[in-house]
Amino acid sequence: MRKYFGTDGIRRIANTELSPELVYKVAKAGAYVLSKHTDNTPTILIGRDTRISGTLIESAMVAGFLSYGANVKLLGVIPTPGVAYLTKKLNADASVVISASHNTFEFNGIKFFSNKGMKISDELEEEIEEIMESGKLDELTAVNEKIGTSEYRADLLDEYVYFFRKNFDDKIAKYNNEDFKVCIDTANGATYSVVEKVFKILGIKYDIINNNPNGININSNCGSTHLDMLKDYVVNNKCSLGIAYDGDGDRCLAVDEMGNEIDGDKILAIISQNLRRKRKLKNDTIVATVMSNLGLNKYAKDNGLELIQTKVGDRYVLEEMLKSDFNLGGEKSGHVILLDYNPTGDGILTSLMLIISILEENKKASEVASIIKLYPQILINAKVDSDKKYDYDKDLEIKEKIEKLEREFAGNGRVLIRPSGTEPLVRVMIEGEDQEYITKKANEIAKLIEEKLK
After folding, report:
1. How far apart (Å, rounded) are the C-alpha atoms in residues 60 and 98?
2. Fewer beta carbons under 10 A from the terminal one: N or C of the chain?
3. What letter does residue 119 receive in the DSSP assignment?
């Protein structure tokens, strides 16, 4: 069991649980693990979102890297996928994003990326933890001329902007029209500045909201986790589409012209249809996680596509895509990976692919999204003893209740039970055609799990 790293890097309350002392140790150990096979002095990039604690964590991380002897390029505020892209572009040895993604401002986090611009594996995270706990950190201290140096390179954000111009300028120009207007919600996060540069240079007509970060308003009732403000704005201002990013810019959700949500599953379906029509969907396959809606399964089956599902986490989606040569995958939360462009979820990239799909169809967003019908879904957290949360499938009564419901659904519903990776909870997710009925059944199963696993 890992002590520090969770399902998406390290994420804790800044300056208490995620103290500068801990960050320094993580940085020093991470620099060693990620560059130990490098003969030259390693170069590591650091990007961050707009949280008030960002520069504090950044300073501790820089100290750890320089102490090891690595050189650092500070990118400033930049979306996570921008860091991933620049890591490959600049042939850096590794990179780090300081962000807690969709969490509120008091949290912060650390995500490591390899020299290929991909989130590092569970095994590498475990190796970093082993070094941190081994007492060897003092041995990894550079001295004299070996001490690393840092430089501030916020100008490299323009390279990320050029990436979008290079790939989308002609495509957008061919189908764009004066009546098409997008509302962008940046969640007061890492996309707040760069997305305007991208949309301006591509000539996409837009309004923008929640783009005035003050260090504490990131994800505050806005962005991809709180769509109500965007929905109202789109409807009241007659926008063609609403786009919402999360705090670090690796997720994208959308809203159609009537204010209806277009979640990650719908986005995957829309983009898959567009790619397939151009014969660019590799092996006619979408990769998603077990949390994807049953409607995505039905969409894939009805359209002759293959849907492969992994365990929860965009890193596992990417692993499957790389292993089997697929180029489209993602999660219902809005992490969408378009491997022909970038090896990580990229909110701006996803939104541009969605916009192209809508413009090329010359239809309204609601019409394009109607290709997939999502099933009603309910998710309930059962509070259990932390030591027992993995034992739900060992209890016969719980197993029998789940199996009975699955037989009853006969393919038109689904039960998914999943222990939380970070909390003393077992998550009970049920999908089916009747919202009231699945809610009742989810509550029954959650109650039984709580009784049995106290």
Report:
1. 11
2. N
3. B
CA 287 – CA 314 distance, rounded (Å)? 10
pTM score above 0.85: yes
Q: What is the pLDDT of residues 192-211, one digit of tens each?
A: 999 999 999 999 999 999 99
Contact between 401 and 444 under an 8 Å Cβ cutoff? The reply is yes
Write out the E strands in 171-322: 181-185, 205-209, 241-245, 252-256, 261-262, 285-289, 306-310
Q: What is the CATH number of domain 377-452?
A: 3.30.310.50
> Looking at 95, 101, 272, 333, which residue is catalytic?
101
Question: In terms of Cα–Cα distance, which of 389, 371, 379 is closest to 290?
Answer: 379
Q: Distance of CA 172 to CAs 198, 199, 239, Å?
A: 12, 10, 18
* Count of other CB atoms within 10 angstroms of residue 134: 10
Amino acid identity, position 162 = Y
Structure tokens at 158: 């323009």
Q: What are the beta bridge partners of residue 395? A: none
Give the tens place of pLDDT for each residue, 216-264. Answer: 999 999 999 999 999 999 999 999 999 999 999 999 999 999 999 999 9
Secondary-structure class of domain 10-152 per CATH: alpha beta
Nearest to 111 by CA among 90, 87, 134, 91: 87
With H, G, I as helix, E, B as strand and everything else as coil, classify residue 378: strand
Contact predicate 342/88, CB 8 Å? no
Contact predicate 338/268, CB 8 Å: no
The Cα 205–Cα 193 span in angstroms is 16
Strands, sheet with 306-310, edge to edge from the N-terminal-most edge strand: 306-310, 285-289, 328-330, 336-338
**Given this model, what pLDDT does residue 312 score?**
86
Is 101 annotated as catalytic? Answer: yes
Correct CATH for 159-369 of 3.40.120.10, 3.30.420.10, 3.40.50.1980, 3.20.20.80:
3.40.120.10
Cα 289 to Cα 169: distance, rounded to the nearest angstrom: 32
CB 314 within 8 A of CB 344: yes
Q: Where does the chain hold its CATH 3.40.120.10 domain(s)?
A: 10-152, 159-369
